[in-house]
Amino acid sequence: MGQGSDTITLTTAQAIIRYLAAQYIEIDGVKTRVCGGGFGIFGHGNVTCLGEALYAHRDELPLYRGQNEQGMGFAAAAYAKHKLRRRFMFCTASAGPGTANLLTSAALAHANRLPMLLLCGDAFLTRLPDPVLQQLEHFNNPTFGVNDAFKAVSRYWDRITHPAQIIQSLPAALNTMLDPADCGPAFLGLPQDVQGWTYDYPVSFFEERVHRIRSQPADDAEIAEAAALLTSAKRPMIIAGGGVQYAGAVTELTAFAEARSIPVVETIAGRANLKNDHPLNIGPIGVTGSESANTIAEEADVILAIGTRLQDFTTGSWTAFAKNARIIGMNVGRHDAAKHMSMTVVGDAKLTVPALDDALADYTTPQDWTQKAQSERAKWTAYVVENTRVGNGPASYAQAIGTVNDLCSPRDRVVAAAGGLPAEVTANWKTLDIGTVDVEFGFSCMGYEIAGGWGARIAQSEDEPDSDTIVFTGDGSYLLMNSDIYSSVLTRKKLIVVVLDNGGFAVINKLQNNTGHESFNNLITDTPTVPEPFAVDFEAHARAMGAKAETVEMANLGAAFERAKASDKTYVICAKVDAYNGWTTEGHTWWEVGTPHISNSASVTAAHKDVESARARQRKGV
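The chain above was modelled as a monomer; its predicted structure follows.
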């Protein structure tokens, strides 16, 4: 590498990695690298140049070898979520199918507002060897390829066509990933030839830099307007979303709710904002919510929505609230704050919640409203106790969740995604400590569970090595993506994986049946193209990837979990649950799904009418 007094000659790939290694962030007064390392699968599109650069920085930026690019992306997203978006991982994949495999995980990170840097191979800029291996040819547009697909799922996108571009592009990508309002995946397409081209970079570009997450207060006028509305409330309610944790505002939220005696309900992403036994924690809200939260939501006159994007599973497709209820949208992002004609308060929750508190003078919630909310929560708590009791009907997700919940440590992290488990975990999990629940339902992505658990465990082992990462997965998601069991064993990042086998995609079968349809193509036994259904030996499969594993009846799950806790190695526990019975049925709001307006099936027609009957409650705000 050549070097002048003010410049240094590097390849594009070397410059990218050198820059990343020099970027730090200050978290609670401690300086650490903002990039925790990366996940990589090498191919011809990234091994020779980017691989060479990564090797030179393998100590500063540890590279985890993935088994599947999509799984790498899920792991990076879970790492960022555990780090509360203050640190991120990169993913590198080769040109062609390797990069294409990252599309789903980029979409997941985009939907969940999670930072992730994608460093992906691309076709040669010179086009001299065209068409090259794995290149997609668009006959009328030679610049168009697989990497362009990431424009829809990236917050920042660029194709590096000259080494000097990264002087602008890398800081822009980093600033996007660290911006509370614009956070999400950043994509850099790296043509194979450009990766190896050199440039005389300014030495100053690689100087150590310490970043800090922007904390922006809200406008005084917006605070005053929100305070005036909240002061008029007779039945106020707070919806606490995942943004509360990202803002580091759990303490401020709790103090505010306690000072004003306002009932708090949690979104799926906002689970673990309050501990289960906090007297103002009224439970999870929405389609996967609790009877307690949804009961008060129907009566609330002013709703303070903090750090939530108000997804349909939170709002019950906008039927969960009274039509005349007023919503105050407090969010760092303008887009989310303004949803459904909300009164907007755009600002960081850590600063904005105390500012709103200061503006409320001596307002407190009427005592009878708070007491009603707490009474409803007491009833819901009793329901959960019975719903999760082993022996209460056939073996179920809820029983497994309750068993693990009773035996886990307070700082253990639970991970779930897609299928029926997000609903069951959200409704039935009793939060033992703040920020310990990761239910991925922003993109509701099957396959996130084990890969995300691996990424979460990497993050957790840096901060809380004595705690466990507990993954709940169904048999469907396990079969979709399980190879990171092997990754966790290889890297000695222990997981406890609870595989609950209900014979297929049972929650979608339930939706199918609940809308009047016959079971078809969801449960393995109801798939016409399967002549002889058989069960998978998940225990043997997990053992083949190096994990410890056992298969148990629900009554013995607790003992198996204690063995898993005592193990120093990834441990997979397999149990069968009923596909038709044992679902949590109480507390769920209406959810809009498309149903046939005409059908030859009387049951389908009747179900359509039943679904549509609830539409009268739907808010029509934009």
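The chain has four domains: 7-211, 220-380, 390-576, 592-622.
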